[in-house]
Amino acid sequence: MTIDWSQYLPELQLLLGAVITVLILAVAAPWLTRLLLRFINPLSFTHDLIERIKEPIHFLIPVVGLQAVLSSASDKFLFIDNARHLTTLAIITGITWLSLRIVSAGEEVILKRHPVDVSDNFAARRIQTQTKVLVHTLCFFAILFGIAAMLMTFPNARQFGTSLLASAGLAGLALGFAAKPVLGNLIAGLQLAITQPISLDDVVIVEGEWGRVEEITGTYVVIRIWDERRLIVPLQYFIEHPFQNWTRKTSNLIGSLFLWVDYSMPLEPLRKELDALCKQSPTLWDGKVSVLQVTDATEKAIQLRILVSSHDSSRNWDLRCFIREKLINFISLHHPECLPQLRANLHEETPKAAPAEQQLSAPAHQPAV
Q1: Is 24 left (phi over 0), alpha (psi -120 to 50) or beta?
Q2: Widest Cα–Cα separation across the chain
Q3: For the segment 237-288, what is each residue's pLDDT rounded down to a tens digit?
Q4: How far apart are the first and last CA of the chain?
Q5: How distant is the alpha carbon of residue 241 from its chain centre?
């Protein structure tokens, strides 16, 4: 029995044409990319963009060419519908990949143009925070739309979607409750990007912990605590709970420290010593605030509050520790009697004389006979 290959000739010709088309486009795409990069300034945004998207472009161009060949073929060819469906899925995958790379390229360019490793980095931190949150949101939507588009190419998936819409009451309610954490964090991320209550590298107090905002993702915030621990906080926390931000508008900070001394402590020498200590620490003190005040008095001692200012919280902490130590040493050396004391009056008690009436009524001593 001989096989009549003539009846499969159209399919073979189509397959050969598709293979040749894919090979030509696969070879031409990298060549065109290198040609474009050669004539573009290496420091420009276009150069960075092409570097980022060249891999998905190399994937998309042959697939689109293959889809064009399959679309022009006759519907009578064997497995033509399956081949068209596969190339459609490949095109959707490539477009999703390309979208993610474009968003990533835009993020990289913005971060390079707004570095945070400078002295006055408030504007850069604000822009970087907005960029990172928006990039995470765009990537989420790009993947979501890509998956939805791929599912809609399947007839069964479309029927499933129609049945869900028909019973959208209970199903929609259940889906809403199930997706509440994800959607809540997504909306919270958009609110954070717009209102900017926190930014990257901000100094914050969250749950009683002091730290810096190290990373902001699409669902949570990573805070690097002073002892190198990491506190993971959901995005919704910063919308629903109060917290302290020490670098909201500026990093300058006024810190306070307290000392208890005796009432006899002269304050003017202590104020002069405070000014001298601040001037000895130009890297810690910003030259703005240096105040010593009596803020409380009890029956035993008086409380002194000292205010000093610095350019940031870390320097202010070091400055307060330095001044507290030096002022205690100053009082101990020059006014040791002025440290907090506990006073007590001690009086020697003398025996009291018996009343005269008791002396008269007492029986006289009778000598022995």
Answers
A1: alpha
A2: 169
A3: 888 889 998 888 777 889 999 999 999 999 999 999 999 999 999 899 999 9
A4: 169
A5: 16
